[in-house]
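Hi R.,

Here's the chain you asked about this morning:
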Amino acid sequence: MKKKIILAALVLFVVIALATTVKAATEVTTIEELKDALVGTEEIIQVKNDITDSTSKLKLEVTGTKVLDLDGNTIKLDKSYFVVTGDAALTVNGNGKVETTGSSNMFQCYAENGKGGKLDIQNGTFINSYQAAKLGECGRIVATWGTENDGSVNTIVNIGRDATLVADYGYGVIVFQDVKNGSFNVTVNVAGKIKAGQMGMTIQGFVKATTGNVPVINIEPTANIEGTQGPAIYGAGYGIWNITGGKFVGEEALSIKSGKFNITGGEFIANGEFKATPVAYSNGVESTGSAISITSNSDYAGKIEVSFNGDATVKSENGYAVFEATTKGTSTKVDTLKIAQGSFTGKEGDVKSDNVEKFVEGGSFSKGVDAKYVSDDVKSAEINGKTVYGEAYALTIDEDSKKYLSLDLTEAIEGQLVEVKINEEALEGKYKVKDIIVTYGRGSEVEKLTTTTFNMPNGDVTIKAVLEEVKEEVKNPQTGDNIVAYTALFAIAVVGIVATAIVKKNNK
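And here is the predicted structure, written out as tokens:
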């Protein structure tokens, strides 16, 4: 009994301890209460009803670490906006809405006094309908920037997979420069949806530093970014873009003037009007109607590096899948252009480049590629109606099988159809090919063919025949050609028996 009392007391102690360490949410019902709640120590702020901003121009500045739980409600802002700076951190969740009609930015997240802000939009819908954005760079959901000088400060913006950002006339997310040419130590992670009138995401063209902790944009496979009257992504200023997947739709899917683009997946679709000569707009974009549009310009940082090393799909409904040209200045700003994988389709053509050659190392192309763009030693084959480029791998027949098997090819690229021919004469009717075994890689992968064809894997191949002796067919005496003979013999036997019976009868 004493033990039970002690145990009950311990449980009660734990419950009381937990209750005292968990802070209750601060409930807000007005824009003024929200403004006040964002200041102070770490806590959760819960919106209890829809809030309409009637005061205008409030700076909703965050201090400490805050969680804003929208709780399914809507906050309608006029010219008020959120600020996350210094060492402040704001997480937004609760699957509600935040709307604004008169603000350049809904959220500002940046570094200040040697400390970086952190903004984590986990879910919900965020809409900026500021119409004056049509005249400039306004009407943004998130504006972020780092520090002028490189260092250890890190400003982080996360757009979660269940978040939707809609900028009716402006930008979804923009990375600005800080004071001069730098915007160091900024990281933007995107897993959700962005739809914007001018462009989904951009790094401002004044961001020109190309070394140090430059801005890094990480885009995940769940992302969906759209520019309704511009590109999905505009790489004006310099940054590193790591694109592992997602969907990108706009007049251009990617419009690039500066930066490093590491592309290992994703769907890139351009629906803009094709322009043989790029046309410049007031926001800096030079429109071409191509899915990957690289336009070197001496006013920008340049140092362009674009590489496709994964299973991406690139399509232009009116222009080129990949287009590259210099629009201002006398020399190209492209350091690297590399296509090693992916599928490319353009109504005007798959690839066009004024300055870069020998950059196609692999991939599938609907119209094929001019030889000057293809790297040395790269082979091609027609596969499923497309021209596919890649490394050629060796085809070898096992020494003991050369008498019985043959090939028309000595090498093939990945995906190419290979046919194995069987030499029936060499089998002399004594044997048949029971199995054809294809070994590739380092012998770790084996395929036993059910037909005489296979698709080339990404490695050298060895082919071997497994023979089986043909046994002589033993015919059933009750069937086949022998039935007539046996029937005749049977008839003769019957006649003999009958004749014998007649003789015996006559001798009686």
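One quick note: The mean pLDDT is 87.

Cheers,
M.
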